[in-house]
Amino acid sequence: MSATAIAHTNIALIKYWGKADPALRLPLTNSLSMTLDKFYTQTTLNLQASDQFFLNNAQQTGQSAERVFTYLHRLERRLQLPTKHYLVNSINHVPTSAGLASSSSAFAALAAAFAQLHHLDLTKQELSILARLGSGSATRSIFGGFAEWQTGTDQTSYAIPIDEHPQLDLQLLVVELDQAPKKISSTIGMQRAQTSPFYQTWLDRNPSEIAQMKAAIQAGNFDQIGKLAELNANEMHALNLTAQEPFTYFEPATIKLIKLVQDWRADGLACYYTMDAGPNVKILTSLKNSKVIRQRLAQLLPSAKIVVTNFGPGVKSWSNSDME
Ligand code: DP6
After folding, report:
1. What global pTM score does this model have?
2. Which of 17, 29, 68, 137 to mutate to test ligand 1, by most ligand atoms within 8 A of the CB atom?
């Protein structure tokens, strides 16, 4: 008997950047994201005599395997299940060019495969809580479309769907400028950001940023969604630059692209940017403008790789029979 789950990566438009409780991965603010169709993780769990983790068919040892098994055994204890050993096979369906391997899809898929293997009949909220214990952003990958992860206690901090099938004309262009693995993980980056003198402002502004984003989504107002997402990303990156031990994820090409997006917008092309814990830029635009932007990118940043993405679905899981 084995179980498989598929979960898609999400990109936060209002970001999670700070923990109230690191052990329980409780966030200091609400966050809101878009689940993407092009990037996902497929994970199959089998029981076997010892723990083994394969990622894209290559056996993993060291930190990444440790994180996976610490997580699975933590779920067993939490759910009062006997200790077992697992063969974990994960495939990251991330176009090799995108540099977007993400813990959001990884831990959402792992949580769902675990629940399926152990025949736990969980609600999406309960699944989101389990995903949270692996990686904060994974809470939101339980749902498709737009999802919000709420602050709260261990029992109440989970994601909720905002609109799982948005009809909005929105495309996200993932522009890969640098394939190097991130130098400062999100876990460490957000810890350091909390020492910024602007951190309290970040916390204070969150309720209204979330409310405005939800209103913009409900109204289908692309420009307002883009403006709010760009502002929030700039706020997050400003915290990093003003941390006690300052740092930035920006590379020269990041700044170049930010300025291009600003110029294009000044020329009347509706587009906005957001960035996470790395140098790559994601451009929010419409179907109509996507082609022009891609043509310009090809001219001005010929080495950049672009993946066009749209809204993706929530997590799915199933059991495989022994016969397979
Ligand atoms: C910038 O979910 O990777 O992408 O909970 O420590 O695993 P951990 O962090 P993680 O952080 C994601 C940070 C972000 C913003 C976001 O996705 O909300």
Report:
1. 0.96
2. 137
